[in-house]
Design goal:
Low-confidence stretches: 372-383
Oligomer: single chain
Mean pLDDT: 76
Shape: globular
Radius of gyration: 26 Å
Order of helices and strands: HHHHHHHHHHHEE
Largest sheet: 2 strands, antiparallel
């Protein structure tokens, strides 16, 4: 590469980094406005998918008009949101009320463990006092932390302003969807660019809808199976833990492990019938259900169409989690997939898309720069 070719390449890299930093800064500063907007956007994808599925229902689907399909889909999403809020409120209050009994059980188990350590002489006698003090301090911290987490969770589900904002964004997105896409299409300088924009938006829509739909169905099935397992075993607050499993499974890598860990730990210190046997039984069956869905059934439904490197997934979790907190963790994968699809359609950014992908294989350019457009159709520029 000559010096004349290197200079523009360095300049493009510098401008790209500057734009990425600027986007991150805007995303962090404007998170209060952007998070409801992005959530509404993905809910819009889900509602359109539900509407299409409702209208494809055997026998009756063909008689359902478009507007009624939207109302049914909107009603299903609204009912799900109300159910989510009610389960959180009821179970958080009940868990706080029941915590003293759990704490008593936890202190008894900790005392038994300390007695075993003392009798086995694993730790020198002069260190046992410090270990016991640390143990008691750690147990004393659980109640304040639990209360703070419960307050945050209850506040999140009771944030009326946020729900109204998301609702208004969603309604206007559904109303203006066609006009928004038309205006985006007009950003193209010619028919070739407009065709690329249309096809790229279509690809993004198909992939994001597929991801959200399959992930939602998979999470629902996993949560239902986990709820049945916990009810049979006898774990308290099974509905709340099933809801937690459903929600956290949207977060790749860490979500499933975090969702399973909490009910297993609570089963260990559960006052009525809890203990090591219940915790191990819950651990084995919950992990089994999770692995069957995540590694057996879900890949067959969604395939490898996301094509994201695991390292990129982990990095996107860190970035969006730092910028937007829990909402960023939930939205990190759909946002990253969208960014990668857009980058594949520009010659200068295709190397970045290749690095983001899992196997280096990315979508072809819809219309290479050498093509001409005649009568709205792309044709090869061959003399």
């Amino acid at each position: 590469m000559t010096e004349q070719q290197t200079a523009p390449s360095i300049a493009r890299t510098f401008y790209g980094l500057a734009i990425a930093i600027l986007i991150g800064f805007v995303a962090y500063i404007g998170r209060g406005v952007l998070i409801p907007l992005v959530i509404a956007g993905f809910l819009c994808f889900l509602i359109y998918t539900l509407k299409d599925n409702v209208r494809r229902t055997p026998y009756v689907g063909r008689f359902i008009p478009n507007w009624l399909g939207f109302l049914i889909a909107f009603g299903l999403i609204g009912a799900g949101a109300v159910l989510f809020v009610e389960i959180v409120r009821a179970n958080v209050e009940a868990l706080l009320d029941a915590w003293p009994a759990y704490e008593t059980r936890l202190r008894a188990i900790a005392g038994d463990a300390l007695d075993w350590v003392r009798n086995s002489s694993i730790i020198p006698a002069d260190l046992l006092g410090g270990v016991e003090q640390i143990q008691q301090s750690a147990i004393d911290l659980i109640r304040p932390l639990l209360s703070r987490a419960a307050s945050s969770l209850t506040g999140l589900t009771s944030n009326f302003v946020t729900f109204i904002t998301i609702f208004l964004y969603l309604v206007f997105m559904l109303i203006e969807r066609g006009r928004i896409f038309h205006k985006i299409n007009l950003l193209g300088a010619d028919d070739r660019e407009r065709s690329v924009i249309n096809e790229t938006i279509g690809d993004i829509g198909v992939l994001v809808r597929q991801y959200i739909t399959v992930k939602t169905i998979s999470n629902l099935v996993t949560a239902a199976i986990s709820f049945a397992i916990m009810k049979i075993i006898g774990i308290q607050f099974a509905g709340f833990w099933a809801l937690l499993i459903f929600t956290l499974n949207y977060i790749p890598i860490f979500g499933a492990a975090s969702a399973i860990t909490l009910p297993v730990l609570l089963a260990l210190v559960q006052p009525d019938g809890g203990g090591v046997q219940m915790a191990l039984t819950a651990l084995v069956f919950l992990i089994g259900a999770e692995q069957i869905m995540s590694n057996g059934i879900e890949p067959r439904l969604v395939g490898r169409t996301l094509n994201l490197s695991p390292l990129v997934v982990l990095f996107s979790l860190s970035v969006w989690g730092s910028l937007w907190g829990f909402a960023g963790l939930l939205l990190s994968v759909p946002i990253t997939v969208t960014v990668m699809l857009v980058l594949t359609q520009f010659e200068s950014t295709r190397p970045i898309a290749i690095m983001l992908s899992d196997d280096g294989k990315i979508a072809d350019l819809k219309h290479p720069p050498g093509e001409l457009v005649e009568d709205g159709l792309p044709t090869s520029n061959v003399s």
